[in-house]
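Hey, sorry to bother you again with one of my protein questions. I've been puzzling over a protein and I'd love to understand its fold better. Take your time with it, there's no hurry, and the full record follows here:
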Amino acid sequence: MVSPKKLDPSSSPAAFYGSELRRLRESVGISQQALGERVFVSGAYIGQLESATRRPQLDLSRSIDKELGTGGHLERLHPLLRHPRMADYFVEVVEQEARARTISEYAALVIPGLVQTRDYAEAIFLGAQPLLNEPELADRVAARLERQRIVEDPTGPVLWMVLDEAVLQRVVNSRRVMAEQLRHIIRLITERQIIVQVVQFDAGAHAMLEGMISLMTFDNAPPLAYVEGPHIGHLIDEPTLVAKCRQSYDLVRAAALSPEASLARIKSAVEEHEHAYDPQ
């Protein structure tokens, strides 16, 4: 099991939560494995909570409180784990991205958040929630741009993206914003910071037609998969399901253009957008 002996409880809210979980578990004399079985997760997952490498969901905190007889202590700690500028379900995803060795993402509808420009991100947020006030919008855009620091960090994860051709053609905000967004991706590709492939429309049916996925691998932890829909996302750690997600990603990558041909397609999409707003 994961041992949190060197964890500093004052280093973060997640570390404090993990140290409290360990203290409460040991006070009743049960193992990580035994507690995991009682709340329907693995013992390894309990160890990851105690070492602050995973973030608990509220319903799990409630279940653990019930099993340990803590009177709701962990549930009351749960608000400390919230991020003021991100949806609760997404906070752990961002933390795992920062720890990842590789991130492999398929996007069917929009440019992935890790490579969005400011104007593109703002339009995406407003499209989903048109009544966002200016401070809330500014906070969300700032959080998204801050998350992107791992992309240009030479010690950050290897980032591989497969984009459906629709992502290149859908006009988000304006043609000018789209051209700027795609030029940003071209820069990241040519500077060898990301790898991108494009699945063209004529590729036909493929393994990822029904949605987005992000796969993360780590040096000292099992791989994870993340899937998302409107206003909800789910981080998957069940090994069999993660393996199926990996297979689907490999299949869609095989159906895509090569990285070189994909770069040419993105450049042609820039020209299409530029011609539309500035015809010769």
